[in-house]
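Materials and Methods. Structural model of Ribonuclease PH. The 238-residue sequence of Ribonuclease PH from Brevundimonas halotolerans was retrieved and submitted for structure prediction as follows.
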Amino acid sequence: MRPSDRSPDQLRPVTLETGVNRYAEGSCLVSFGQTKVLVTASVEEHLPPWLRGKGQGWVTAEYGMLPRATHTRGRREAASGKQSGRTQEIQRLIGRSLRAVVDLKALGERQVTLDCDVIQADGGTRTAAITGAWVALASALDYLREEGVLKTDPLTDQVAAISCGVFKDTPVLDLDYEEDSSAEADSNFVLTGSGSIVEIQATGEKRGFSRAEFDRLFALAHGGCETLFALQRQAIGR
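The predicted structure was written out as tokens:
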């Protein structure tokens, strides 16, 4: 039995609340159980210098954890003057994941920045951020089309992410912190609505894992993402 009394293929309760920031073009408060991430999508009519004049836009992300998002207070990275390697790796992952489902030429010469701030962490913050970031991005692009800025929808597909792991020799879906901290293996799957793989991160923590275990993790992730895709569509009214 899992610590949360969930079955191996059961997600934590997931909510995707839109319109939580009155100023951002798109926003989403995403909750996976006790993990909560606030995502805002900001549209800017300028690009990084290396992209100017190329007839395309850009989607990027920034990620951070509030000081008391975890059991003990963490120091703000701004106070130390640099981001940790973990932060840089996660925000690059979020950016890659969203760009995989955006037609950058259709976006035009503008940038959308997705700010992902972890309010509370109980495992799976990067996967929650990706799932919520798609909703915030879709909301921002809908706004641009309503305003007549965009003629077509630059989104080509949905993207969502979920964690899976081997806990007490059993492959399970959507690890919380208690499971993640003691799992024999853990993984993160980033998948699109059409079934493509954007990224898979899989690590043996206490032992290696078998091909059969990996196949089961992949199957769990696929089923979990199908549920997330439905929740995303519901959140933005599509």
